[in-house]
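Structure tokens please, single chain.
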Amino acid sequence: MKTPQNPAVGSDLAARAVSMIGRGVSWLTLAMVLLTFFIVVLRYGFNQGWIWLQESVTYLHAMVFMVAAAWAFQTDDHVRVDIIYRGRSPRYKAWVNLLGTLLFLVPFSVFLLGVAWDYVAASWSTMEGSREAGGLPLVFALKSLLLILPALLLLQSLSTLRACTSQIRRPSGGTENHDRQAPA
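Here you go.
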């Protein structure tokens, strides 16, 4: 179990929900590996293959990345520009996280919700299925991930904003813990 290094993680209900969802969906990677192995054995060992089985790997892959994105942000496993972050005080990191969340993550998530809503609704209205014969009839459910991704990111944003604000308000007393390494 990884302990988050991000000072903006938060420990409220939103953070716990994102963590629980992320941990749960992370097990789908094992299912993807086993399913891919099974597909390869069927294809090359028995000359058998089913479109729905191959599409299910794509569905699992989309679920892992879109549902676990907020958890990756929470555990600080996302891409970060270390030039302005590494070796800084927790207060400075909290400011960077606060501004990044307010200026980039929240607007992106709201934009994605707005843009994807009609797209997903249209898919649900027709109960859109696979275009492939024998494919999964669940494309509408797959497209719903376009709404789940920003919803979970916004949920984690609330926790991050709360934790950042708390870190910024915390008195430093001149003893801020810098992560800088001593020269060797």
